[in-house]
Amino acid sequence: MKLRFMNGGNYIHYNPVKRGDVDVPEHWRYSSARDYLGQPGLIEIDKGWSGS
Question: What Gene Ontology molecular function terms does this protein carry (predicted)?
């Protein structure tokens, strides 16, 4: 389940890159990619969710 989430998360994070809006996912203002990289984002992400 975790692998499926990570693959889905990567897919979602790279959508703005594929569209040419940004060069890397963490540059997209509304992306949670920044939070997963330890950078501040617009909202706090609950990383304790396990999906099980």
Answer: DNA binding; transposase activity
pLDDT in tens, 17-46: 999 999 998 899 888 888 888 888 887 787
- Domain ranges in the chain? 2-36
- Helix locations, the chain, DSSP H: 2-19, 33-36
CA 35 – CA 1 distance, rounded (Å): 21
Q: How much is the pLDDT for 8?
A: 59
Q: Rounded CA gap, 27 and 17, in Å?
A: 9
CA distances from 22 to 3, 13, 30, 49, 51 (A): 25, 11, 12, 28, 29
Is the separation of the CB atoms in 49 and 32 below 8 Å? no
